[in-house]
Design brief:
The protein has about 475 residues and is an alpha+beta fold. It is built from 14 helices and 23 strands. About 50% of the residues are buried.
């Protein structure tokens, strides 16, 4: 196809306005997957309008789950989930969260097949699912990894039911998806499953909140990264093994706000010297603060003012000098870590911000070893900054910001987004630079951000979707 959609951005203007932060992408996908565990409807509110949600809808429907939309609500009902699957494997190949159906399908049916997931290419190992497989085997499942098939898939069976292992399941590294899959499978395993080095990300805790409301018995020790799941013994239900439903009533669940989207818009206010109010919904203040703590204390260090204006509303702006001008951004170095550390999904956006700082900083990536593809494109944007992979540490990128270059005219550019967060970083840098930027690869960005052009336009940016001829 010779024409593709691109974002065209004329930057150099401060952003001012308010943005409503939708539900979290990384929360709604496992939540929708968990609907397989009950035969009663679950109504999810505050659902983001992103393409990954549509992919999960299509995948669930291919397994016999009814999924319907009404505004920002999604209703899932798994009255009779099916196996063998009839889904097109290309659905799974388009996003990472497809693997999250493995645990709940296995728990509900005793039999699951999931084609190898796709998603952003940010890990040189291809983002393997080995921890998922190991944990399900420890729960008593027989798992076949059919990697030589075309397309490759994973098949798991537990016709005699799942059972908790005698010893704790200790993850070799914190894995959000593997933790979530293990929890969902353990909900109907006999005995108590203890997961050590578990993910305690807010998105995992949101899943646990839903599962507990469905009747699951789950304890969380956030300090020690430990989760205990006491499963329901399937023999007590008088049902065939693997045919357990956790709930017998309709449940409504409001998805937590997307902390990565909130952090991205906060950086947009900072990088352009503007002022944006984040509207995060009717959640308790402690929930909002816990969600955003790891991002916001670094924004404070970078000279950003953060003010709570009302329940669920946070105002973001740059500090001002004595004559009212935006204060220069000081350099702030970060290292990505599992929650409550700095999130890897804000790494590229932070790099964009540091390109407009007034000194030297670095970012060390400890989660995904191939999350540096944005570096070359930021360097090509003529931002006046120097950004490069550290030759002495392959996990680190170094940035020499040049805030004085920000006011200079810069050439028009065409760039390509390689993944969701790299695309967000390019948008942020384009908003701050004095020049026109066109960003291809919009499909990647729409996997994690809803109404991007409209939201930024509402804050005064010159941004629109255009058709671009591609040779």
């Amino acid at each position: 196809m010779p024409y593709k959609t691109a974002l065209e951005i004329q930057g150099g203007q401060p952003l001012n306005g308010e943005v409503s932060i939708p539900g979290a992408k990384n929360a709604i996908l496992p939540l929708m997957a968990s609907s397989v565990l009950t035969d009663k409807p679950i109504v999810f509110a505050n659902v983001p309008d992103i393409s990954d949600v549509i992919l999960m809808k299509n995948l669930l429907e291919s397994h016999g789950v009814s999924v319907s939309f009404a505004g920002n609500q999604v209703t899932c009902r798994a009255t009779h989930p099916i196996y063998p699957v009839s889904n097109d494997p290309t659905i799974s190949g388009k996003f990472r969260a497809s693997v999250l159906l493995l645990g709940p399908l296995l728990a509900r049916l005793g039999h699951a097949r999931v084609y190898l997931p796709g998603g952003d290419a940010i890990d040189s190992r291809g983002r393997p699912v080995d921890i998922h497989v190991t944990n399900l085997r420890l729960l008593g499942a027989t798992v076949h990894e059919m990697y030589r098939e075309n397309p490759p898939y994973i098949e798991a069976t537990a016709f005699s039911g799942l059972r908790a292992p005698r010893q704790s399941i200790t993850l070799p590294k914190v894995s959000v998806g593997a933790t979530q899959n293990t929890i969902m499978a353990a909900c109907v395993a006999s005995g108590t499953t203890t997961i050590q080095n578990a993910s305690i990300e807010p998105e995992t805790l949101d899943l646990i909140k839903l599962l507990k409301n469905l009747g699951a018995n789950i304890e969380v020790d956030k300090r020690n990264h430990m989760i205990k799941v006491t499963g329901k013994n399937i023999e007590n239900f008088g049902l065939p093994p693997g045919s357990v439903s956790l709930s017998r009533y309709t449940l409504c669940h409001t998805v937590i706000p997307d902390r990565i989207v909130a952090g991205t818009y906060a950086i947009a206010a900072a990088i352009t010297g503007g002022s944006i109010e984040l509207v995060l919904g009717n959640f308790p203040d402690e929930t909002i603060l816990e969600l955003l703590e790891s991002e916001f204390w670094r924004l404070l260090a970078a000279g950003i003012e953060i003010t709570r204006t009302a329940r669920g509303r946070i105002h973001i702006s740059r500090k001002r000098t004595w004559n009212g001008q935006p204060h220069p951004i000081p350099p702030v170095s970060v290292e990505t870590r599992a929650y409550p550390g700095f999130p890897t999904d804000l790494h590229p956006q932070w790099a964009a911000l540091m390109c407009f700082s007034n000194g030297e900083s670095w970012i060390r990536e400890t989660i995904f070893d191939d999350r540096f593809k944005y570096v070359e494109q930021l360097e090509a944007m003529s931002l006046g900054a120097i950004i490069f992979r550290d030759p002495t540490d392959p996990k680190r990128v170094k940035i020499y910001g040049n805030s004085e270059q920000q006011n200079l005219g810069q050439p028009d550019l065409d760039l390509i987004s390689g993944d969701i967060r790299a695309g967000a970083a390019l948008i942020l840098a384009a908003l701050a630079r004095n020049g026109k930027t066109r960003i291809l690869g919009l499909d990647h960005i729409k996997r994690g951000y809803e109404n991007v052009a409209n939201n930024f336009r509402s804050c005064g940016s010159q941004m629109e979707e255009v058709m671009v001829f591609v040779e």
